[in-house]
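WARN retry 2 of 3 for item q-0093 after timeout on previous attempt; input resubmitted unchanged.
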Amino acid sequence: MKKIAAALLAASLLILPAHAAGANPVDAAAAVLMEKETGTILFEQNAHDKLEPASVTKIMTLLLVMEAVDSGRLAAEDLVTVSARAASMGGSQVYLKENEQMTVHDLLKAVAVASGNDASVALAEHLAGSEDAFVAQMNQRAAELGMADTCFLNCTGLPASGHLTSAHDIALMSRELILNHPRIRDYTTIWMDSLRDGQFQLANTNKLIRFYEGATGLKTGFTDAAGYCMSATAERDGMELIAVILKSSTRDIRNEAAKSLLSYGFANYTLMDVYPGQALPPIDVLLGEREQVQPVLAQSSRILVDKSQVNAVTTQVSLCEDVEAPVEAGQKLGEMAVSIGGEPLQTIPIVAGEAVERITIPGIFSRLLRNLFMAG
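OK item q-0093 returned
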């Protein structure tokens, strides 16, 4: 093995214990601060307490709809016909009428901006046939995401006994939505807009969109039982954070709690690249159709680091000296060890970036003749 050591900026995929990094408790029943790309939890307060999420529920509704849109099962231009049941939803609404038709695009806007319960049910029924069938999909997706604290009973967050989740689980589904379906920002960053050719005005229930630098979303909620809830997302300098607040006593306290967590994260952490723009040295291939293979990192080398530890991070690359063909794309060829202050943080596999077939007998002769010709 040949080893190439280099001091580079990086950090680990650690999960930090609650308050370990110095963030102050927030005025809410529960809270979580998570970094999007790595999924690192930077702060937690009663993170697994099962609480009512109110309209923050709609993050899962938006996730399922965006998964359908991005997979091609649903198109933004598709028309949805509103049922009597969808039109009957109370609470926040855009006053859909039975048999009214509205595009998926406009209904997504109604959910993300105005938190329309009627729009949520219309989308759920269109996608799954009924809200009950859609809720089953919500719970299945929650299980797949590891949301062990969650039980959804509707797609809106309207009060229902047993409709519960946690700050931790909301962070998980928020991350899935913004990480893998970035087009949701087209809706969650709208401050003001309209429906029905300008006849119905929309104003975002998330005031951070206008008043917090870098805000990208995501969803607010309120009922008397749930209190004031929020999953707030914001991005600065290429790092996006998710701040979940559950059961605050007022809208302003909720908003300030979310802002304080986001600001804490931006002040204390940064995403750095452990191997920015550098090619790893090629590895010799024995008996291969090509004489070398290019190794690549198996995953992103962007890692979260506490700003106070930036200069203490080092990396060490270990590679095979050679490998015998055939070589499969993705075959492990080495690893990159990341440490901080000499303490191991993370190991990133290094793999073959391409396949190399074993050379044939005619190929060996052809190579031999070519080498003889070049030597002559």
